[in-house]
Amino acid sequence: MTNMRPPQKSKLLKVIILGDGGVGKSALLTRFVSNRYEENNFHTIGVEFMDKDIAVDGEKYTLQIWDTAGQERFRALRTPFYRGSDMCLLCYALDDRDSLRGLRLWRNEFLNYADVEPDRFPFIVVGNKNDIRAEKRQVSSEDVQKWCTEQGISAHIETSSKAATNVTDAFVLALRQWKKMECIAEAEQRQNGETINLTQPIRLMQRRSCCMGGDGATKSADVIDADDDDDGQTTDAAMHAPNAISRHLFGQFRSSPKAPSTNYRL
Ligand SMILES: Nc1nc2c(ncn2[C@@H]2O[C@H](COP(=O)(O)OP(=O)(O)OP(=O)(O)O)[C@@H](O)[C@H]2O)c(=O)[nH]1
C-alpha cells in the first residue's frame, strides 16, 4: 500500500506555427525545443514537427509542435497537416509590416483546412525578432493590438528567438488560451446536460486525423516547468539544451540563407 499518487500522464497537444516565409517560425521552434539559434536558417519545405514536454499550472503537457513552410508555393504540402491542431501560433516579424497583414490569410487558410470554429479556436499572435534596432521596427504595439481586435484574437506576444526572449512564454500563452477555450466548452457541455469524459480534453473542434506523429516523435530530453518562477513568468534561461534532437521532416530543406512585450500577463 502506498499513498503516492500514480504518475500523472501528460496530455498530448498539437500546436501549429504559421506565418510568412522568413518571419522566424523554425527559429522559434528550435529555440523552444533545443535552446539553439542559427542565423542562416534554411527555408522549410512542407512541414516538420518536434515534441516538447512542459508543465503549466501543475499539469503536464507534451506539445507536438508543427513548423510549416511559409512560402506560398508549398501550400499544398502544408495544408493537409492543419487538421487536429489544438492551438495555432500566427507568427509575423516586427521588421516586416506585410507579414502582420498576411496573418489574415494565414488564419483563413488554417480555418479552411483545419475545419474548426473560428471563435472557439485558440489563436495567438507572435511578433518575432524583437531584438531588432528601433529604426528597423515596422510594427508598433498599437498596430498589432488593433489587428488582433479586428480579428477577435485576444492574445499577442513579442519574442526574439535570437535573444531568447519570451519564447517559452509564447507557448505557455498559447497553452493558456487553449485551457480557456476548454473551460468554455466544458461549461457549455454541462449546460447542455452532455456527459463529460474527465479523462479526455473537451473537443469543440473537429478532431485529429492521420497527421499526428504519435509515439514516433522525438522529444526533447528536458521538461520545462513554466510554474517554476516566483512571479509566475517563465524565462528562457530555465531551458537546457537536450542531448539529441531531431526533426521529423515532411518535406526537405533547401540550402539558401535568408536574410518584449505582450498584452497578456502569463
Ligand atoms: N533578428 C532576428 N532574426 C531572426 C530571428 N529569428 C529568425 N531570424 C532570422 O530570420 C531568418 C528566417 O528564420 P526562419 O526561422 O527560417 O523563418 P521561417 O519563418 O521558418 O521561414 P520559412 O521556413 O521560409 O517559412 C533566420 O535565418 C534568421 O536570420 C530573431 O528572433 N531575430
Automatic annotation (TrEMBL):
Residues 224-233 have a biased composition (Acidic residues). Its EC number is 3.6.5.2. Keywords: Cell membrane, Cytoplasmic vesicle, GTP-binding, Hydrolase, Lipoprotein, Membrane, Nucleotide-binding, Phosphoprotein, Prenylation, Protein transport, Transport. GO terms for cellular component: cytosol; early endosome; late endosome; lysosome; phagocytic vesicle membrane; plasma membrane; trans-Golgi network. Its cofactor is Mg(2+). GO terms for biological process: protein transport; retrograde transport, endosome to Golgi. One of its GO terms (molecular function) is GTP binding. Residues 215-237 are annotated as: Disordered. It is found in: Cell membrane; Cytoplasmic vesicle, Phagosome membrane. It is an enzyme of class 3 (hydrolase). InterPro entries: P-loop_NTPase, Small_GTP-bd, Small_GTPase. Its main location: membrane. It is a lipid-anchor. It catalyses: GTP + H2O = GDP + phosphate + H(+). Belongs to the small GTPase superfamily. Rab family. This is small monomeric GTPase. It comes from Drosophila grimshawi (Hawaiian fruit fly).
